[in-house]
């Protein structure tokens, strides 16, 4: 069913306010969920709201925390998320890093003990709006098998890169798995099968059943390349944030455990380098007008599709499964 953005925003915020989340924090958390829906990423959208409410009710998410950090080096911030809502902690971290990066040119934050931070593009875009380059990484439960393996032993370990261009920013946001587990959950929620190359079941057999995939393992994207990149994110985040490795991570897909994954954010002031972002938009336009393999499908740049879907969603509303809409309305009603 199609629902207006403002109607969903109001209901979702009410659901969080009923759990003593501060108005500002509720706006931040809901804005991220809505933006994920608008960009065509329902796996990181409102389907996560009922679990967030359950985590708040269980005391696994703190309704008012925004994290506490200390600078271990002049450009390195170590952050205890204090069980805060992930987007609230992350936006607070971006504010702290922005102040330092303007002086030092580069700054990094390593975060532990924060709840699920959601769609990484949200933070990459926030950084580019401030004229900064961003690299964002996070880890998850063991959901992905190694290249050549069948056992869930790595996180989906997404990475996002945002670069200001003088026009629309370059935004790359990808999981190092074939898909996110949230996307598999969305297929399960909507009762649709998944492609046969996405995942294996608990016995290591390829499956098109999203319910079977939820207890199995997702394939790394690009075979050995995605596996190597995902492992790099796993190691880098664990080394910097002191977070658990994937087989011991909990708290992003349940409402029973403290979230013990890690997050890393790097901000860079492009003015600190020898180059400039002034010509980037021109080059990206050159890419868009380069010869395409399909005359009916022009070459696109990462971020183009999300912006187009967002514009359409703002105009027409968000498509939401009715059972999820009903659940959100019930949570809003208290």
Automatic annotation (TrEMBL):
The keyword Flavoprotein does not apply. The keyword Oxidoreductase applies. InterPro entries: Mal/L-sulf/L-lact_DH-like_ah, Mal/L-sulf/L-lact_DH-like_NADP, Mal/L-sulfo/L-lacto_DH-like_sf, Malate/L-lactate_DH-like. It comes from the Bacteria. GO terms for molecular function: oxidoreductase activity. Coiled coil: none annotated. Transmembrane segments: none annotated. Keywords: Oxidoreductase. PANTHER family: MALATE DEHYDROGENASE (PTHR11091:SF0), OXIDOREDUCTASE-RELATED (PTHR11091). Belongs to the LDH2/MDH2 oxidoreductase family. This is Ldh family oxidoreductase. It comes from Aquicoccus porphyridii.
């Amino acid at each position: 069913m199609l629902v207006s953005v403002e109607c969903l925003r109001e209901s979702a915020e009410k659901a969080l306010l009923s759990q003593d989340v501060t108005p500002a924090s509720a706006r931040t958390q809901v804005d991220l969920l809505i933006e994920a829906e608008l960009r065509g990423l329902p796996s990181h959208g409102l389907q996560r709201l009922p679990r967030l409410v359950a985590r708040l009710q269980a005391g696994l998410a703190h309704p008012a925390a925004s994290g506490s950090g200390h600078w271990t080096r002049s450009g390195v911030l170590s952050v205890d998320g204090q069980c805060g809502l992930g987007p609230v902690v992350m936006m607070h971290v971006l504010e702290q890093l922005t102040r330092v990066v303007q002086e030092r040119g580069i700054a990094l934050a390593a975060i532990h003990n924060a709840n699920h931070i959601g769609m990484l593009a949200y933070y990459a875009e926030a950084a580019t709006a401030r004229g900064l380059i961003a690299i964002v990484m996070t880890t998850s439960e063991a959901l992905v098998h190694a290249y050549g393996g069948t056992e869930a032993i790595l996180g989906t370990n997404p990475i996002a890169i945002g670069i200001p261009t003088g026009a629309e920013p370059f935004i790359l946001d990808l999981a190092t798995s074939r898909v996110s587990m949230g996307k598999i959950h969305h297929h399960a929620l909507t009762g649709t099968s998944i492609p046969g190359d996405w995942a294996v079941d608990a016995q290591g057999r390829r499956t098109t059943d999203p319910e079977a995939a939820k207890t199995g393992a997702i394939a790394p994207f690009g075979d050995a390349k995605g596996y190597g990149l995902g492992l790099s994110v796993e190691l880098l985040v664990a080394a910097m944030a002191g977070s658990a490795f994937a087989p011991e991570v909990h708290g992003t897909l349940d409402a029973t455990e403290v979230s013990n994954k890690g997050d890393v954010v790097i901000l860079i002031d492009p003015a600190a380098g020898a180059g400039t972002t002034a010509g980037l938009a021109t080059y990206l336009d050159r890419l868009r007008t380069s010869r395409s393999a399909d005359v009916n499908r022009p070459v696109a740049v990462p971020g183009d599709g999300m912006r187009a879907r967002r514009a359409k969603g703002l105009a027409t509303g968000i498509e939401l499964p009715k059972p999820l809409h009903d659940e959100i309305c019930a949570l809003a009603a208290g």
